[in-house]
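Example record

The entry below shows one chain as it appears in the dataset: sequence first, then structure tokens.
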Amino acid sequence: MSHPVRPPTQTPAPNLEAESTAAPIPSADRLRIGGFTRLTTIDYPGELAAVVFCQGCAWRCRYCHNTDLLDASAPGLIHWTDIQGFLEQRIGLLDGVVFSGGEPTAQSALAAAMQATRALGFKVGLHTGGVYPDRLRDLLPLIDWIGLDIKALPHDYPAITGVAHSGQRAWESLDVLLTARVPMEVRTTLMPNWTPEQIAELAHALADAGVTHYCIQECDTDRALDGTLQGSLVGMDERIGLIDRKRFASFLIRGD
């Protein structure tokens, strides 16, 4: 995943409530944008894309490396009109736009930004942790591809996110996407202390659920929100040695 470059900021305690969906969908100009990547070949598989980094996330994952994007109350650094102006100049040159974060689905203006992106002829990608399954379900008609982070088995989520019941939300989002048959890649960042047995158990649970495209990566402890995290003493080959890779149509190991 690409990472926006911004100075570090302090982050408040997590708040699981997204912006209200009861009011009319706000304009794309309301989208709070904390960073922007003009060109990437890795954030939307098989496509040349730009990445819009949305501000705010309700979770505080220990290995999070985009900590400057966590504060939902922080003002955006980039205005949507600037993004749209850039995209208008890249019609025919870029294939798609990925909305990443933070957690993009926390912002109710995301739908309008996706609609504006599609109106320009671009494919729409989304990176999400599955924090808000109901909102994700509503956004599906606007999305061409999704990268979904599944961090652990449901009961192990709070130890990573710091939020109770976060695992149930994420796995509900997974079910939503599998049911809708949305093109998707599921990704897992490996906690340093996980054993090969734990890693295989998670991978095989995802295969059982119907996941066909799976990607794993080590966490970047140098930039992690939790400064006490230390890298694994065991090599990647040994850590994932118990995974039956044949159960996935695509199995990738990706550097952070």
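Notes for this example: Residues 6 and 23 are 32 Å apart (CA to CA). Residues 166-180 form the longest helix (15 residues).
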